[in-house]
Design brief:
Strand order of the largest sheet: 2-1-15
Structural class: alpha/beta
Low-confidence stretches: none
Distance between the termini: 16 Å
GO molecular function: amino acid binding; dimethylargininase activity
Bound molecules: citrulline
Mean pLDDT: 97
Protein name: N(G),N(G)-dimethylarginine dimethylaminohydrolase
CATH class: Alpha Beta
Active site: 161, 248
CATH topology: L-arginine/glycine Amidinotransferase, Chain A
Radius of gyration: 17 Å
Shape: globular
CATH superfamily: L-arginine/glycine Amidinotransferase, Chain A
Organism: Acidilutibacter cellobiosedens
Pfam families: DDAH_eukar (PF19420)
Length: 259
């Protein structure tokens, strides 16, 4: 069960963030509206949402998932791999202190972004991508082990983050796109395979018995509903233009983590 979720409003210079998507410039007002829709969807799933003010120093700071890894026992402050995002992680610490007494930090040459972390039960898959290096994976694994979790690394070759291409939907099922559809690591799970022309829709948020999914991907929607999942749909077009999926926009704190 997830009770508390943290989000950060998009900054006015949101369009100056990093993107590889060739979908045009995002509209700030529309992004704000979609962000509000995302918050409403979380509330519909029973969450209490802490909404942080926009941080104009960091155009990508609305993608708050990347700056911490949160579990029911501890929060781990990451070290973003993208140069323009370094420092964002410091701005989440005070907020996480309201929910956690155990806060851990990655150090030194470690790079790691939360989008690369996929949790399935007590195991954490750590994507090694352009944003997360081997030292980041090593340090995170050591911290997670200390709290009784296991972890293993998964190479991410073609996409931004691990969770851009694979998420856990619950009920022993993953939703996967692209390079993860045939990856042996995920063969032990039931898999909903997303078509290449709907690859963006692999990234959904599992939330208290629901899956929050992006609007406009009819084949994925049908496959997810047919597999028995209850869905809540949100408009994400402006975030998609900035390579941001649904998970990127929140830190979802598992229950029993509060002091
Ligand atoms: C970036 O490239 O860092 C942002 N424009 C998008 C970050 C998306 N975050 C995520 O997948 N967790």
């Amino acid at each position: 069960m997830i009770k508390n979720v943290i989000v950060r409003k998009p900054s006015k210079n949101f369009a100056d963030g990093i993107t590889t998507a060739d979908l045009g410039k995002p509209d700030y007002e529309k992004a704000l509206e979609q962000h509000e829709g995302y918050i409403e969807a979380l509330k519909e799933c029973g969450c209490s949402v802490t909404v942080l003010e926009a941080d104009e120093r960091y155009p990508d700071s609305t993608f708050v998932e990347d700056v911490a890894v949160v579990t029911e026992k501890c929060a781990i402050i990451t070290r973003p791999g993208a140069a323009s995002r370094k420092g964002e992680e410091k701005e989440i610490i005070d907020t996480l202190k309201k929910f956690y007494s155990n806060i851990e930090y990655l150090e030194g040459s470690a790079c790691l972004e939360g989008g690369d972390i996929l949790r399935i039960d007590k195991h954490f898959y750590i994507g090694q991508s352009k944003r997360t290096n081997a030292e980041g994976a090593r340090q995170l694994t050591a911290i997670l082990n200390k709290y009784g979790y296991t972890a293993s690394a998964v190479p991410v070759k073609q996409i931004l983050h691990l969770k851009t291409g694979v998420i856990y939907a619950g009920n022993n099922t993953v939703i996967a796109a692209g390079e993860f559809k045939d990856n042996d690591v995920f063969k032990k799970f039931k898999m909903i395979k997303v078509d290449d022309d709907e690859a963006y829709s692999a990234n959904c948020v599992k939330m208290n018995g629901h899956l929050i999914i992006p609007k406009g991907f009819s084949k994925s929607k049908k496959a997810i509903v047919d597999a028995g999942f209850k869905i809540v749909e949100v408009e994400m077009s402006e975030f998609e233009k900035m390579d941001g999926g649904l998970t990127c926009l929140s830190l979802r704190i598992p229950e029993d983590s509060s002091k």
